Amino acid sequence: MAEPTADSNTGRRGPARYRVIAAELAGKIRRGEYRPGEALPAQRDLSAQYGVTLMTLRQALQSLQDEGLVVQQAGRGTFVTPTHAAYRVDTLRSLADDLREQGHDVATEVLSRALRRPPSWVGQRLSVDGDDGRVLRLERLRLLGGHPAVHQVSWVRQPYAEAVQHRDFSEVSLYAALADAGVSIVRASETIRPDTLSASSAAWLRQPAGTAIFVSERTTFAVDGTALVVDRAEILGNAMEIRTERAATRLSVSWGPARG
């Protein structure tokens, strides 16, 4: 029987060669030698570097892709998966709280806050008309890993608007501020649709107007059925995808990184 070679995938002398290569590349990615979004060397260069055939090298890259560490783009090459976060849409926690729980570096910039009359579509959802006065309009920018990712505007009805308007929303979530004000949140209704980036949000997200995005619109309700908050978030669509985990007893839905 022929002795296994250095390029053997089934050798008896140790792990399959492609697994060793995958482990070495994974280590470099996790140590930051290849940064998120960066291209790996060309396949021919890597195969020469490791002394293996292209077939073996491609097995290693496929293993890395299965782990979610890289994405392979036809005609372009192999890239380290960008650092993006999963934003769960099946919980009543805030976006920032969900992201931080996953260990992501998330920061919030408060762009503006003011008591004002809401636009008509918001007024309808909050059951507020012109005679009911003003609501709190809170505009925030979410940054992931230091990069703008979500532009979010929230409208909060009275009397809770005045109760939370002076909180530091760069440090505390809106949901936490409402809880501190004695509000019990029991449910939220959310719709998500594809759209393109508006001119008004383009500058904040540092992308051209017309860029593909997801738009999330959420209405949050108190225990007595009163609509408390209306949110509208523009989420960069070249970075996120919707994922589902289905089981016999539950359905979990979350945002996650686009895999190309």
Give a short overview.
The chain has 260 residues and is an alpha+beta fold. It contains eight helices and ten strands. This is GntR family transcriptional regulator.
Topology of helices and strands:
Layout: H1 17-30, H2 43-50, H3 54-66, E1 70-73, E2 77-80, H4 95-101, E3 106-116, H5 120-126, E4 135-144, E5 147-156, H6 160-164, H7 174-180, E6 185-196, H8 199-205, E7 212-222, E8 227-236, E9 240-246, E10 251-257
Antiparallel strand pairs: 1-2, 3-4, 4-5, 5-8, 6-7, 7-8, 9-10
Helix pairs in contact: 1-3, 2-3
CA-CA gap between termini = 43 Å
Give me the count of strands: 10
CATH class term of the largest domain: Alpha Beta
Instruction: Return the CATH architecture of the largest domain.
Output: 3-Layer(aba) Sandwich
What share of residues is helical?
Answer: 25-40%
Report the uncertain regions: 1-6, 8-13, 85-90
* CATH domain topology of the largest domain: Chorismate lyase
- Strand order, largest beta sheet: 3-4-5-8-7-6
User: How many domains make up the coordinates?
Assistant: 2
CATH superfamily of the largest domain: Chorismate lyase-like
**Which structural category do the helix and sheet elements fall into?**
alpha+beta
* Main sheet overview: 6 strands, antiparallel
Strand content: 25-35%
Order of helices and strands: HHHEEHEHEEHHEHEEEE
- Radius of gyration from the alpha-carbon trace, in angstroms: 24 Å
Keywords: DNA-binding, Transcription, Transcription regulation
Pfam families: GntR (PF00392), UTRA (PF07702)
Domain HTH gntR-type: 15-83
Protein name: GntR family transcriptional regulator
